[in-house]
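User: My advisor, Dr. K., asked me to get a structural model of this assembly before our group meeting. I'm new to this, so sorry if the format is off. These are the inputs:
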Amino acid sequence: MVYDAFVLLSFGGPEKPDDVMPFLRNVVRGRGVPDERLAEVAEHYMHFGGVSPINQQCRDLLAAVRAEFAGAGIDLPAYWGNRNWHPMLADTVAQMRDDGVTHALGFATSAYGGYSSCKQYWEDIAAARAKVGPGAPVISKLRQFWDHPGFVEPHADAVRASLATLDESRRASTRLVFTAHSIPSSMARTAGPDGGRYEAQLNETARLVHAAAAPELSWDLVWQSRSGPPQVPWLEPDINDHLESLAAQNVTDVVVSPIGFVSDHLEVIWDLDNEAADTAKRLGLGYARAATPNVDPRFVSMVRELVQERTGRAPLKRLGTLPVWDDCPVACCPPPQRRGA
Ligand SMILES: CC1=C(CCC(=O)O)c2cc3nc(cc4[nH]c(cc5[nH]c(cc1n2)c(C)c5CCC(=O)O)c(CCC(=O)O)c4C)C(CCC(=O)O)=C3C
Ligand SMILES: [Fe+2]
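Assistant: The format is fine. Below is the predicted structure of the whole assembly, which you can bring to the meeting.
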């Protein structure tokens, strides 16, 4: 297979106050989410002037990937398109067609399997290509990278750095808490070719980061950023409830490592640096939030290595033991049931 472009696939985020509501309507498109719920989420964005950091983080990653490709003699133009906000993937795909691209490799900013983190990016690609019509380039998504050293090692270093900010005399009562985006339990059950893969991969990443960064600590994997109606079960416990139960078990300090994410976007800086940090303060827990990879050089090199792996120029590089594959089976990770459907 000959590939002639690279495309960064991401979630997208608002870049000014007037973007916030239209962005949120795009996120929940077709799901019958009430406006009151959206207004609540909009407020989180308004605390940051209506600007999510995620788009700038994508620009920074794209620039770093271009430099990385140039340094390795990889002659692929690099594009960027989002699911929910400009630059929208369909516009990017139209540009790629105009530039003569025929078959691109896509890198999504999520390390894991599941509908929201993987399959929906395949759907985004299909929808963008359908919109562009004849001549739209084929886009093959690069594989999930939950156990790649270029993802695990930056998380592990960040855990070490966070731990160093906490009181060493309380190390024996310090806990390492990994978090990821909660998803509906039904979506978790059907994640991956044989189900449960989102949680299984997150557990593997957690185990690897723990072993590399702080094997002396006990650890837990918990969930954050739940949305949706309360009667629909999502993965639990929530990080805030978990902090309550840790405080009750005489834990004194926590390092929170958001292994579910690749950059410090709004779900991290609002839900962890604000909400969870407030909960910890109220409980008298020492609290440190570890960084995500962002543009860590090892993470940027990982993107290059995934491209080279796909083109047969580099070996498979990984630390875990769960199955790895390139193209996802058609039947995996079905979309959630639409309300009223
Ligand atoms: C697994 C997962 C990831 C990680 C993988 C990946 O990164 O792809 C992720 C990332 C993100 N989620 C984000 C924001 C939002 N997610 C929402 C809603 C939802 N997320 C879900 C799952 C995930 N989400 C689900 C099952 C829903 C409900 C159903 C739906 O509606 O799809 C809503 C709706 C409002 C609400 O009800 O909270 C918002 C605003 C941002 C942007 C942050 C920024 O702006 O900096 C990012 C990176
Ligand atoms: Fe989300």
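One thing worth pointing out at the meeting: The longest helix spans residues 54-71.

User: Perfect, thanks a lot.
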